[in-house]
Design goal:
single chain; 464 residues; alpha/beta; 13-stranded mixed β-sheet; 11 helices; 22% helix
Length: 464
């Protein structure tokens, strides 16, 4: 008898659309390609200059020498810009049928009707749908795509764009600065409470291509926002790349919850960068689920810049066959009385590798900082791997920092205990795994992101 925990069902997400794009850049990364993308985007001169300088930085920086093996990534074979045969609209009925069917399958229109105040949908390199409730615009809330923001709110974009994640940060930040396309811009005025979430969904359909959306969110003093991000792609036999960038600015006394489900296909390199700057008394809440991709390197970072700033990170990672998911969180305490909690669960099965990697930095300017890190890992068989790699860099004496890590397999004693009470071995194993992820899974926005349900429930099943 063989019992196992079934992999996440991906049939829904792996449905491919016929490629009907009307333009693709040449594969590779050259100045000519960058200029072509910029021209097609109608960039202002300063953005073209920014892209070209980012390309220079990219060519000077080496690939990371730590983390998962990404040698399979060959940028000479990656198409960095794919324009779908669609223009941006604010009415689902006007989205081309082939693209609309994809988002219909993923449940985006239903989610918008039931529980979202605004939705953006990106297909390959372009946002094809965007909407926001009028009551929010009446309050001064701005929710639009980055290209439109660059035209209508150029001063704000120019002030903040890639200041938190500069191109020199690492090679894929520089790549993003050169070829970014699409993404979301959100501005919440001081004191405004956006009670219903906004959601952006990113779908990469083209084979051998990359997606490089940029998300810029500014939550002014005393304001509140919940933003949901979803991602998926069908599976191909060639490498695809995701190197997006998220920059979050949480001002004094503001609160932002940023929920993400990364559900890329098993041929995807997911090399995403996310960072938040939190001012005095502000709060950033990260809720992160990492399920798809062949390789992931994802470590959302919270820079606690103002006194009393706080960060909460809740994450779950599920690595199955052929996956190497290297995930975690970073917190920088840069002001007095800042606090953070990191709570993660990782699961690996069928030879998958799940690595939890964290970094906690307490500067000399952060007396009385507090940070608690808790990471638990569960391996479901003898061929899988799980690693925990925490780093603590404490410069001051007046800090309260704690770390707890647990790595193990399903306890045979626990299985025996449950079976002795009439529960089958398969269901006993499934119950233990459900209990393991429940503290994390309950934080994920199931009530809003309908298409994510199968991922979060993990569909545990025993078979003979």
């Amino acid at each position: 008898m063989k019992n196992y925990i079934q992999d996440i069902e991906r049939a829904l997400y792996d449905v491919r659309d016929v490629d009907k794009s009307i333009y693709k850049s040449d594969a590779g990364l050259t100045e000519e390609i960058i200029r072509d993308i910029s021209r097609r985007k109608n960039d202002p001169p300063w953005m073209l200059e920014f892209r070209l300088k980012s390309l220079e930085v990219y060519n000077k920086i080496d690939l990371p020498t730590w983390g998962p093996d990404i040698s399979a990534l060959n940028m000479d074979e990656i198409v960095t810009y794919v324009k779908p045969n669609a223009r941006q609209v604010d009415d689902w009925s006007q989205v081309p049928d082939a693209i609309k069917k994809t988002f219909d399958r993923l449940g985006i229109p239903d989610a918008e009707k039931k529980s979202l105040a605004g939705v953006g949908a990106q297909y390959d390199s372009e946002v094809v749908y965007h909407s926001i409730q009028k009551r929010l615009t009446d309050l001064g809330v701005v929710y639009t795509d980055m290209e439109k923001a660059l035209i209508e709110h150029e001063d704000i974009v120019k002030e903040y764009f890639m200041t938190l994640v500069p191109p020199k940060d690492h090679k894929f930040a520089a790549l993003h600065g050169a070829v970014w396309s699409g993404g979301s811009f959100v501005y919440v005025p001081a004191g405004v409470d956006v009670k219903i979430p906004l959601q952006s969904y990113f779908r990469l359909n083209a084979a051998g291509a990359g997606q490089f959306e940029h998300t810029l969110i500014i939550v002014e003093p005393g304001a509140k926002l919940h933003f949901i991000e979803g991602c998926s792609a069908p599976r191909y036999n060639v490498t695809n790349l995701h190197a997006g960038c998220v920059e979050l600015f949480v001002k004094e006394g503001a609160r932002l919850r940023y929920s993400t489900i990364e559900n890329w296909s098993r041929n995807m390199m997911n090399l995403n960068t996310k960072r938040a700057l939190v001012e005095q008394g502000g709060l950033i809440e990260w809720v992160s689920g990492s399920f798809g991709s062949a390789v992931s390197m994802l470590y959302p970072c919270s820079v606690l810049h103002g006194e009393g700033a706080r960060a909460e990170f809740t994450g779950v990672t599920f690595a199955g066959k052929g996956q190497n998911l290297d995930t975690g969180a970073i917190v920088v305490h840069a002001a007095p009385k800042t606090s953070a909690n990191i709570n993660t669960r990782t699961i690996s099965k069928s030879g998958g590798a799940a690595t939890y990697r964290s970094a906690v930095k307490v500067t000399k300017n952060a007396p009385f900082a507090k940070c608690s890190v808790n990471c638990e890992s569960l391996m479901l068989d003898d061929e899988s791997r799980s690693d925990t790699l925490p780093v603590m860099d404490i410069e001051g004496d007046a800090a309260d920092i704690g770390h707890e890590a647990k790595i193990g397999r399903i306890s045979e004693e626990a299985i025996f205990y449950l079976m002795a009470r009439g529960i089958s071995e398969a269901e006993a194993r499934a119950m233990i795994v459900r209990g393991f992820v429940e503290p994390i899974a309950k934080e994920l926005p199931l009530e809003y992101a309908v298409e994510m349900n199968n991922l979060i429930n993990l569909e545990l099943e025993g078979q003979l």
